[in-house]
Design goal:
Length: 375
């Protein structure tokens, strides 16, 4: 058993820290900090976090909390770190380092010193090794303290394993899961993504509605660590798999103008194992109505001026979504992601509940949530 598993850091997209802290609260003590959540709990915490957290992009296991003070004190602590649980003797490590100590060596000299001290090759982390066989370490130091951590996830966690095809402007699965939490959606409520594209939001919703752990379809870096008890991990995975329901409480609706995108949703959803929880249709939001579906949450990641379509067409699209909400979808709540929040708020014309800033693929965006009038 790893002696240091009780302390982890789960990283997320800026703006989702509070959501991640709430999710992670089910696994241990969770404290939101900028960029993620500090998490402490029982041994195996990093495994549970990788397997179950829907809004974490990666999970780090703390190997050492470094002392405050000068570089010499930090260096002495680094020299004492025992890596045997995360990397076999003599095997290479990849180091991602941010060192803000005067007197500390520059990154190449630091790696050379650590390689002599730890008696193993220490390479600069470049990103590609996430998917390969190495152990990735993350070193952050400031004079007020620091941490050395091992990256338990490997490939970033938004790569769930099911998305092998993307649409023109896909969002990360972790952001999609975050939007559903921010919109306060519960699987018992009807959900309709009226611009579903390649289906990230509806597939994430279906996974949650069926209590399917997001990491069941992929592997993690910690599986290769010498200290990982393989039988205990297999049991943990089997437990999570057994919790999954065979059906969602109610179907999840997705529609899009683009027939090609719907084919992509179907194939992605089949790989994710949730196709039978989705109701998909090719439809223009200008003519779309809920049919017999009771009021719930209308959701959309709207076209971006910069990415999909042209800025001049946006007003008409925003107006069409507003019109759908005020007439055919009356009684529905809405959660709309946009890079033009002011224009969208004007076009929708419903009571605004909240404007939550986020980023999507480096673009500043806002999630606007609206309630129906009179509620
Ligand atoms: C930003 S993309 C959504 C991406 C999606 N969330 C994903 O992860 O793949 C916007 C989508 O809106 C669709 N769209 C644009 N105008 C539409 C309209 N009038 N009715 C329905 N869908 C429309 C586009 O085909 C595109 O798939």
């Amino acid at each position: 058993m790893l002696p240091f598993e009780q302390l982890c850091f789960a990283a997320t997209t800026p703006g989702l820290e509070a959501v991640l802290a709430e999710e992670a609260g089910a696994l241990g003590r969770a404290t939101p900090v900028p960029g993620g959540v500090e998490l402490s709990g029982a041994p195996g915490l990093h495994q549970e976090a990788c397997l179950r957290l829907r809004t974490a992009n990666r999970v780090l296991v703390r190997l050492a909390v470094l002392p405050t003070g000068n570089w010499a004190a930090v260096a002495a602590a680094l020299a004492r770190v025992d890596l045997s649980a995360v990397a076999a003797e003599g095997s290479p490590v990849w180091l991602e380092s941010t060192v803000r100590h005067s007197g500390a060596p520059a990154a190449p000299a630091l790696r050379a010193w650590l390689a002599r001290t730890w008696r193993r090759p220490v390479h600069a982390a470049a990103g590609e090794e996430r998917a390969s066989s190495g152990t990735r370490l993350v070193l952050r130091t400031v004079p007020g303290g620091g941490t050395l951590s091992a990256d338990a996830s490997g490939e970033l966690l938004y790569r769930r394993g099911w998305r092998q095809e993307v649409g023109r402007a896909p969002m990360r699965e972790t952001l999609a899961a975050g939007l559903l939490f921010l919109a306060d959606w519960k699987p018992e409520e009807a959900l309709w993504d009226v611009m579903c594209g390649s289906g990230t939001l509806v597939i994430e919703a279906a996974l949650r509605a069926r209590a399917m752990a997001p990491g069941l379809g992929r592997r993690f870096a910690f599986e290769r660590w010498p200290g990982t008890d393989r039988a205990a991990w297999a049991a943990r995975r089997a437990r999570a798999a057994a919790e999954a329901a065979t059906a969602a409480p109610r179907p999840i609706h997705g529609s899009d103008l683009n027939a090609g995108a719907l084919g992509t949703v179907r194939r992605n959803a089949r790989r994710a194992g949730v196709l039978d929880s989705l109701v998909l249709a090719r439809a223009d939001v200008r003519a779309l109505g809920p049919g017999g579906v009771p009021p719930g949450l209308l959701l959309a990641n709207l076209p971006y001026g910069k990415r999909v379509g042209r800025r001049g067409e946006l007003d008409a699209t925003f107006e069409a979504v507003g019109e759908a909400l005020r007439s055919r979808f009356s009684g529905w709540r809405a959660a709309l992601l946009t890079d033009e929040p002011r224009r969208l708020e004007r076009a929708v014309g419903l009571p605004l509940v909240r404007a939550h800033p986020l980023t999507n693929g480096g673009i500043p965006v806002t999630l606007l949530t609206f309630r129906p009038p009179g509620r």
